[in-house]
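> example.struct
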């Protein structure tokens, strides 16, 4: 019985856990998950927010001749 409750707890907070592991600011996702995670749609939205994350920054260096250096 206790392992089932642990499983439910982890599943409920899975979007927040994913956000923390991926290094995304998780406070907003945690609050959203806390208040709306009990609805299926709210949980799915929180999961999508956690998986979407941030766009990766790309550094482009252009030398004096105008060529892009990677």
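> example.seq
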């Amino acid at each position: 019985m206790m392992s089932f409750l642990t499983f439910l707890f982890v599943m409920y907070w899975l979007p927040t856990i994913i956000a923390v592991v991926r290094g995304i600011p998780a406070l907003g996702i945690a609050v959203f998950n806390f208040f709306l995670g009990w609805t299926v749609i709210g949980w799915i939205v929180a999961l999508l927010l956690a998986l979407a994350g941030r766009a990766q920054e790309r550094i482009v260096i252009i030398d004096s001749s105008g060529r892009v250096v990677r």
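> remarks
The beta strands are 61-62, 68-69.
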